[in-house]
Amino acid sequence: MLTLQIIREKPEEVIRGLEKKGFKETGLIARLQEIDSERRKIQKQLEEVKARSNQIAKEIGALFKEGKKEEAENLKVETGTLKQKEKLLGEELENREKEQNNLLVMLPNLPYELVKPGKSAEDNEVVFEWGKIPDLGNSALPHWDLAKKFDLIDFETGVKLTGAGFPVYKGKGARLQRALINYFLDRATAAGYHEVQPPILVNEDSGFGTGQLPDKEGQMYFVGQDNLYLIHTAEVPITNIYRDEIVPEEKLPIRNCGYTPCFRREAGSYGKDVRGLNRLHQFDKVEIVQITLPEHSYTALEEMREYVASLIQDLGLTFRTLRLCGGDMSFASAMTYDMEVYSGAQKRWLEVSSVSNFESFQSNRLKLRCKSKEGKPRLAHTLNGSALALPRIVAALLENNQTPDGINIPKVLIPYTGFDKI
């Protein structure tokens, strides 16, 4: 959530940032300024009324001591009037604060200065490329055909059990899933991330804290009877561990990782993008999360980007890194890198990771602050990244490593799978 301070001090800069992100309701800034002005006037009046009430209370006590009962009773009448005024001003102040907060949560985060303007994925910048585009020839099979041929993934049974987008992994397909999860977790802990296993259901406060609510409400599965949401990323519960906390600055950065299944409704998805593993409603993912000092967050973002890139390189997959334009970034992000691997049989790029810096946007909603021994509490910065999401990694591994004799397993995974070929 944007702070009122930046809206007060730099309204034109805020409007330019919102426009870069494709947010059209920039008139909300003027309304927020009006409400803020009104709220502060009411606050001042309320403080004056309370001060007068306190002063009268002292005067009444002094008058009674002096035996001036009639004068004291007259002041009591004024006290009653002031109490009524205090009540009305308090209600008015509460209404202004509610309206102000309702408008603030509608505003997306402002993009970082390096983020370019743009409306969609076509305007994203390619900032790094690695590997050669695989040439598999015309006989190469897409991963959904390979999965059926080698009995690795059963999409049809998943439809019977639940619905489209809920595959059943079998045999070596299931072992490959488990191998990737364990490999990604081991790599993360070796890189200094602390492993946690969070809940996969969260309450509304957690969804609000990291910016999924109200922005992504329609994309999350909701358990109405218990008012809980199935997570679409481990970022939500892991970051919310620190909601309403003041973290000593000497304990930063906090670096956590965690594996969870993830759930996304993906309403409105159709066509080739949803074939096979390309877009699922349930999938596995290892997430990395950092909480840092504001002055260190962009250094941390680059470190996370390089770390995710190293995972993909060690799997031997051709990939590229994109810096997203303003119009293609998420509601809460200030800057995002996407990593895409090349699918040799589908002949297209598949996104496998997003690494984002949210600056203080999430921490303002979370009331997550950091504090030095000498200074006042200030908002921390939060970051997260997929390291990695499994479905499209599996798709690219199956397709790009297919041979006439089967599918080769990358060397780094063999200790985890227990086999070198499917």
Description:
This protein is of the alpha+beta class and 422 residues long. The protein is built from 13 helices and 18 strands. It has helices at residues 4-9, 11-20, 27-65, 69-104, 143-149, 155-161, 171-190, 204-209, 235-240, 297-314, 361-366, 390-400, 414-417, and strands at 125-130, 153-154, 168-169, 194-195, 201-202, 222-223, 228-230, 246-248, 254-263, 282-292, 319-323, 335-343, 348-357, 369-371, 378-379, 381-389, 402-403, 406-407. The strands form 5 sheets. Strands 1-11-12-13-16-10-9-4 form an 8-stranded mixed β-sheet. A 3-stranded antiparallel β-sheet has the order 5-7-6. A 3-stranded mixed β-sheet has the order 8-14-15, with no helix packed on it. Helix 3 packs antiparallel against helix 4 (69-104) and helix 5 packs across helix 12 (390-400). It is elongated. The model has no long low-confidence stretch (mean pLDDT 95).
